[in-house]
């Protein structure tokens, strides 16, 4: 019988809050539990959620939300340092522009927009992901990284971390797709976009993360060269990540 802790923390106010522990990385060593957490935003935690959060010993949080997102839904957590790593949600603005122009937005077009967004993560937002890795290398204290829904910006960050630890790509994809099982889409009574379009926007598809990883492969020759050249995570840094975030015998 497995003694591993639950991956999903089942928080009422952050449905996509989950642990990256347990996945098998380099040298068949699993990722340490209760060190690396990914989540949707943390502004809606209930008092009971806050107790669970405190019990995890998290002292640092990394927030990928854009400036307006943070301002609209701020939060404070006692004893926890917040580090903004803003990546503006461009796909939402592009959708709004299309709707304002009276253009029809289809699910297929939305998938294309999402893929473009993920490709932009690779190049346009590399500095933000590099900053996250620098914090990972500064300390192995428990941390959470998140955006609004914890699925796109957060999903790419989680994929990079797991790939840096040599977790197989198919397993990384499985973790990425867990959002569809866990995340509760917010109520949007005044949404102008068709429901089938919102279904694309508020969920994840393999095609989204694949778009980013294919860009990494095509433009850098693979994940390891990308980590090294774009994010400053070379062989020595990856060795340090493995010492801190993989279990030892």
From TrEMBL:
Residue stretches making up the Tyrosine specific protein phosphatases domain = 127-167
Under SUPFAM superfamilies, the record lists: (Phosphotyrosine protein) phosphatases II (SSF52799)
A Gene Ontology molecular function term for this protein is: phosphoprotein phosphatase activity
- InterPro entries noted in UniProt: Prot-tyrosine_phosphatase-like, Tyr/Ser_Pase_IphP-type, Tyr_Pase_AS, Tyr_Pase_dom
Q: Which family does it belong to?
A: Belongs to the protein-tyrosine phosphatase family.
Which protein is depicted?
A: Tyrosine-protein phosphatase
Instruction: Please give the organism.
Output: Ottowia beijingensis
């Amino acid at each position: 019988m497995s003694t591993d802790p639950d991956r999903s923390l089942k928080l009422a106010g952050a449905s996509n809050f989950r642990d990256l522990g347990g996945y098998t990385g380099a040298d068949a060593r699993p990722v340490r539990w209760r060190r690396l957490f990914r989540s949707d935003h943390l502004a809606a935690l209930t008092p009971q959620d806050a107790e669970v959060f405190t019990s995890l010993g998290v002292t640092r949080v990394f927030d990928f939300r854009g400036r307006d997102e943070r301002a609209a839904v701020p939060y404070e957590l006692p004893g926890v340092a917040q580090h903004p790593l803003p990546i503006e949600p461009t796909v939402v603005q592009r959708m709004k522009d299309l709707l304002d122009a009276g253009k029809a937005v289809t699910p297929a077009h939305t998938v294309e927009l999402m893929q473009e967004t993920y490709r932009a993560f690779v190049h346009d937002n590399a500095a933000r992901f590099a900053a996250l890795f620098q914090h990972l290398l500064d300390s192995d204290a428990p941390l959470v990284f998140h955006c609004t829904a914890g699925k796109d910006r957060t999903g790419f960050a989680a994929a990079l971390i797991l790939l840096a630890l040599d977790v197989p790509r198919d397993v990384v994809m499985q973790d990425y797709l867990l959002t569809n099982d866990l995340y509760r889409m917010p109520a949007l009574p005044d949404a102008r976009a068709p429901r089938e379009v919102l279904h694309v926007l508020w969920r994840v598809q393999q095609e989204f993360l694949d778009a980013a990883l294919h860009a990494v492969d095509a433009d850098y020759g693979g994940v390891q060269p990308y980590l090294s050249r774009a994010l400053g995570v070379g062989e020595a840094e990856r060795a340090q990540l493995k010492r801190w975030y993989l279990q030892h015998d």
